[in-house]
Amino acid sequence: MKNKIKYLLIASVLTCSAQIAVAAAEEKVVHVLNWSDYIDEQVLTNFTDATGIKVVYDVFDSNEVLEAKLLAGGSGYDVVVPSASFLARQIQAGVFQKLDKSKLSNIGNMWDDVEERVAQFGPLNDYSVNWHWGTTGIGYNEGMINERMENAPTDSLAMIFDPDVVSKFADCGVHFLNAPTEIIPAALLYIGEDPKSTDTEVIKKAEGVLAKVRPYIQKFHSSQYIDSLANGDICLVVGWSGDIFMAQYAAWDAENDVEIVYAIPKEGAVIWFDQLAIPKDAPHPDNAHEFINFIMIPEQIAIATNYVWYANGNLASQAFLDEELLNDPAVYPTPEVLEGLYTVPTYDAATQRVLTRTWTKITTGY
Amino acid sequence: MNIKEIQIPTFLKRIFNGRNTVISIPYLWLLFLFLFPFIIVLKISFAQPVLAMPPYTDLLKWGESWWPTIQASFDSYLFLFSDSLYIHAYLSSLKIAIISTILTLIIGYSIAYSVAKAPTQWRAILLMLIILPFWTSFLIRVYAWIGILKTEGLLNLALTTIGIIDKPLIIMNTDLAVYIGIVYSYLPFMILPLYANLEKMDMSLLEAAADLGCRPLKTFWTVTIPLSLPGILAGCFLVFIPVMGEFVIPDLLGGSETLMIGKVLWGEFFYNRDWPVASAVAIILLAILVVPIMFYQKSQEKAIS
Question: What does residue B53 show for φ and ψ, rounded to 5 degrees?
Answer without folding.
Answer: -115, 115
